[in-house]
Amino acid sequence: MSVEQLGFAAPAIDLVVVDADALQRRIRELGAQIARDYAGRDIHVVAVLKGSIAVVADLLRAIDARVSVDFIAVSSYGPQSLASGAVRLVKDLDESLEGRHILVVEDVIDTGLTVNYILRILRSRRPATLEIATLIDKPAHRLIDLPIRYVGFTLPDVFVIGYGLDFRGRYRNLPYLATLKPAAMS
Ligand code: PRP
């Protein structure tokens, strides 16, 4: 990608991991696959804030089927407590899940603790089916084995920003996935 295409973040970007075209192509593929898999069934997407904002916005439009969406937000108490699975519900869903076909949409699954916590909450609400879609699967530090139905990209243990993913709240608006230069993270 050219410096112009990198936009305001160009000085901070180390490597572009997935460019905007490749992201959109993969999202379209996932959307088509989901529409096929759920043929004849309404899909209720549960998007996990905030990182999933970009992928859910594009994925919804890539699914040619009847889809509704709701949002949930959780927060960890920091790395140590996350390792113990301590996750807190910050924003609950607005709608009931009972009897519905639920597709949880995440930006990244790393240890798996966050989505595992969310699945426990959602399962207790008796959905008809419950599946997971993630833009990025980072299996290197997985602590909990999860059946992830839809994966955009499997990445090694690299810290990526853009397309919803942040560093200290910024860079979520980039249309590509990239790594930051060490100097940009100090
Ligand atoms: C990220 C991501 C997942 C979680 C994955 O959220 O959106 O929810 O971390 O990590 P895990 O598999 O190790 O639990 P983050 O805490 O960065 O919040 P954000 O989505 O609001 O940026």
Describe the secondary-structure layout.
Blueprint: H1 3-6, E1 13-18, H2 20-37, E2 43-49, H3 53-62, E3 67-76, H4 79-83, E4 87-91, E5 101-109, H5 113-123, E6 129-137, E7 150-154, E8 160-161, E9 177-180
Parallel strand pairs: 2-3, 2-5, 5-6, 6-7
Antiparallel strand pairs: 1-9, 3-4, 8-9
Helix pairs in contact: 2-3
The structure holds 1-O-pyrophosphono-5-O-phosphono-alpha-D-ribofuranose (PRP).
1-O-pyrophosphono-5-O-phosphono-alpha-D-ribofuranose (PRP) is lined by residues 48-51, 76, 106-114, 166.
- Broad structural category: alpha/beta
> What's the total helix number?
5
Biggest β-sheet strands, sense, barrel: 6 strands, mixed
Helix proportion of residues, in percent? 25-40%
